[in-house]
TrEMBL record:
<comment type="pathway">
    <text>Carbohydrate metabolism; tricarboxylic acid cycle.</text>
</comment>
<dbReference type="GO" id="GO:0009055">
    <property type="term" value="F:electron transfer activity"/>
</dbReference>
<keyword id="KW-0560">Oxidoreductase</keyword>
<feature type="domain" description="2Fe-2S ferredoxin-type">
    <location>
        <begin position="19"/>
        <end position="119"/>
    </location>
</feature>
<keyword id="KW-0479">Metal-binding</keyword>
<dbReference type="GO" id="GO:0046872">
    <property type="term" value="F:metal ion binding"/>
</dbReference>
<keyword id="KW-0411">Iron-sulfur</keyword>
<dbReference type="InterPro" id="IPR017896">
    <property type="entry name" value="4Fe4S_Fe-S-bd"/>
</dbReference>
<dbReference type="InterPro" id="IPR001041">
    <property type="entry name" value="2Fe-2S_ferredoxin-type"/>
</dbReference>
<dbReference type="GO" id="GO:0051539">
    <property type="term" value="F:4 iron, 4 sulfur cluster binding"/>
</dbReference>
<dbReference type="InterPro" id="IPR012675">
    <property type="entry name" value="Beta-grasp_dom_sf"/>
</dbReference>
<dbReference type="InterPro" id="IPR017900">
    <property type="entry name" value="4Fe4S_Fe_S_CS"/>
</dbReference>
<dbReference type="GO" id="GO:0008177">
    <property type="term" value="F:succinate dehydrogenase (quinone) activity"/>
</dbReference>
<dbReference type="InterPro" id="IPR004489">
    <property type="entry name" value="Succ_DH/fum_Rdtase_Fe-S"/>
</dbReference>
<dbReference type="GO" id="GO:0006099">
    <property type="term" value="P:tricarboxylic acid cycle"/>
</dbReference>
<keyword id="KW-0816">Tricarboxylic acid cycle</keyword>
<keyword id="KW-0004">4Fe-4S</keyword>
Amino acid sequence: MATVTETPTGGMADSAHLARVTFRIRRFNPESSEHAFWQDFTLDIDPKERVLDALHQIKWEEDGTLTFRRSCAHGICGSDAMRINGKNRLACKTLIKDIADLDGGPKAKPVVIEPLKGMTVQKDLIVDMEPFFQAYRDVMPFLITTGNQPSREHRQSAEQRERFDDTTKCILCAACTGACPVFWNDGQYFGPAAIVNAHRFIFDSRDEGAEQRLEILNDRDGVWRCRTIFNCTDACPRGIEVTKAIQEVKQALITRRF
Ligand code: SF4
Ligand code: FES
């Protein structure tokens, strides 16, 4: 007979609807070993739950030392980007049923969860985000204006706003930068997320700092390092056309029109 159990999100799941899924997680604890290792956790879980719920279930019921970031749990804060079955995704926006082998038998493939590539792992699924945020700060992601304080709001037409609408959606999750082979090979590259956030201001009609930002991105580690591989666009959970934004910044560097 089916039993009713509480799910990690507080809902109720009928045991008849639970699936047996193995999560293979890359573990690393610098306090106990210099080597990372894989650990399997097999859960009976509602496949309509998210990967974040599975991580919670593991942490709360199996191994409290499992370490990962998350905050909003609703795709807004960008803190739980990780590599799930080889693709960068937000754990809170990834349904288990969409990525797991629900066969349940001994040959069922595990869901493989790793930290983002190209960034120093601090513990388990947590990477050091400081170089990522330094690149973000370097492109001056704020409105730059000169002259007197305006006496009324900065006016902008719908068309002018539309010009940079796509890049306003960034939640700084680093899924794009952590999917970029150029960044993997050389962490000095600004990376797609910093360029996306530069784009957001370069093409803002109210801003006067575009020339400064373009010069920053004209650097040896700047926008020209992009090889137009599109991994960043594929990885972005917000659907931002990251590669297109990078191309537009390159174009602005050549034409000085923005
Ligand atoms: S551009 Fe997309 S993938 Fe990159 S940091 Fe922003 S939201 Fe994340
Ligand atoms: S926890 Fe905030 S985006 Fe996933």
